[in-house]
Design brief:
Number of helices: 11
Strand order of the largest sheet: 1-2-6-3-7-16
Number of domains: 2
Oligomer: single chain
Distance between the termini: 16 Å
Shape: globular
Low-confidence stretches: 1-10
CATH superfamily of the largest domain: Zn peptidases
Largest sheet: 6 strands, mixed
Strand content: 15-25%
Helix content: 25-40%
CATH topology of the largest domain: Aminopeptidase
CATH class of the largest domain: Alpha Beta
CATH architecture of the largest domain: 3-Layer(aba) Sandwich
Mean pLDDT: 94
């Protein structure tokens, strides 16, 4: 840090600083694993705004990047650059059913509305400004806006492709921080426990054939025509899993659902495909056994297929665990500090919570022995375009003050 840092003085308007950071983030897309251009742009904007801070872009992989600054051994304010959707209408269309591009960021005197604000540009901007504020007063603070912070399954694409996140690359080279604060949207409280996450891929395989010869595939008419029992079996498994996997006495809970269903080629519907694949996302609680979950799902689907047209098909379930559930002790120093900061800001204790199903890189930090808390404002989907989120600027400002109190 340059000796002249204290010339910055207090922010003239904390809310305006957050909006400025959001505009810089909104200028460049940051899809998963391709955040380098966005990281460079944001680093340039930050350097022009606060030249006494060293802003570093750490590249990894083919196009991934982190932006970090400050004391790596201080309290780390963490969020991520990438967004859950890519922002490319062609790539996102299978999820959103929209062919138009999301509109640019819109800011009024009370709210901001834009793409990727909830995951996670809104809290990331609040954390960035909090980091500058804390650093300006001489606090030992670090900032990491990481690449590849949203979840992706490694079961899709080239076989054996390892998961590679920006946080993993950062922790491989940097000293460990004394504690970490996850700046990401969530419930109106403090989380020191987070669930795990995994992906399951259900594969039902028969034999391909031609539409003009309906009896040529196995099963007759193709696997797509008989997909209903497979979907219903997964849904039965999901219901049973959620009911039987509650985690009393913790802040977390289970969830699961089918997020993708694929078969055949869109440009060759004259052929019946041999393979039906369903992608399932599972939120796990402490003590979950991923292999047992995969095995019970396979048995449920096999049973559903046994006496019908799919009886001659094979059933496989592949597993990709993102990370297991993890927790920081409720009396850890960073948790106590977060509670104190919450009381100072809101005049009351953070509300209790159970059944939380959102998993972040906080579990990765905890796996490295780094005590971690998560807190952030809740976003709402835009009424005009659910790809865009709406955040209250007063809430963003409050959380920025909260983040700044923790280093």
């Amino acid at each position: 840090m340059a000796p002249g840092r204290r010339r910055l003085g207090p922010f003239l308007n904390l809310t305006e600083e957050i909006v400025g950071a959001l505009k810089a983030m909104d200028a460049i897309r940051a899809p998963y694993g391709h955040e380098a251009a966005a990281a460079v742009h944001l680093a340039s904007w930050c350097t022009a705004r606060w030249p006494w801070i060293d802003w570093t872009v750490q590249r990894y992989g083919e196009g991934g990047a982190n932006l970090h600054a400050g004391d790596p051994e201080g309290v780390l304010l963490y969020s991520h650059l990438d967004t859950s959707l890519s922002g490319d209408s062609d790539e996102d269309r299978p999820i959103t059913a929209r062919a138009d591009a999301p509109a640019p960021l819109k800011a009024t005197s009370t709210h901001v509305e834009g793409f990727g604000l909830g995951v996670a540009r809104g809290p990331a901007a609040a954390a960035l400004i909090a980091f500058v504020s804390a650093t300006s007063r001489g606090a030992s603070a670090g900032l990491l806006l990481a690449g590849s912070g949203t979840h992706r399954s490694t079961l899709h694409g080239p076989a054996g492709k390892p998961r590679s996140t920006g946080l993993d690359h950062y922790l491989a080279d940097a000293p460990y921080p004394s504690a970490a604060v996850i700046a990401k949207g969530g419930p109106s409280t403090i989380l020191w426990e987070e669930p795990g996450a995994l992906y399951l891929r259900v594969r039902v395989q028969g034999r391909h054939g031609a539409v003009l010869a309906r009896e040529s595939p196995i099963p007759h008419g193709g696997v797509i025509a008989h997909a209903a029992p497979v979907i219903e079996a997964i849904e039965r498994w999901r219901t049973s899993y959620v009911v039987s996997s509650t985690a009393p006495g913790t802040q977390v809970g289970p969830a699961a659902g089918i997020g993708s269903l694929t078969a055949g080629r869109p440009d060759k519907p004259d052929l019946f495909p041999a393979l039906l694949e369903a992608g399932v996302y599972v939120v796990t609680v402490p003590g979950a056994d991923p292999r047992a979950l995969a095995a019970t799902l396979r048995r449920e689907v096999e049973s559903a297929c046994a006496d019908g047209p799919l009886a001659a098909c094979t059933v496989e379930v592949d597993l990709d665990e993102v990370h297991p559930a993890a927790a920081t002790p409720s009396d850890a120093p960073i948790v106590r500090m977060a509670r104190d900061a919450w009381r100072e800001e809101f005049g009351a204790d953070p509300p209790p919570i159970t059944g939380w199903t959102g998993s972040t890189d906080g579990v990765v930090l905890r796996a490295h022995g780094i005590d971690t808390v998560r807190l952030g404002p809740a976003a709402a989907p835009s009424k005009d375009d659910p790809r865009r989120d709406v955040l209250d600027l007063a809430s963003l400002t409050v959380y920025s003050r909260l983040y700044a109190r923790l280093p």
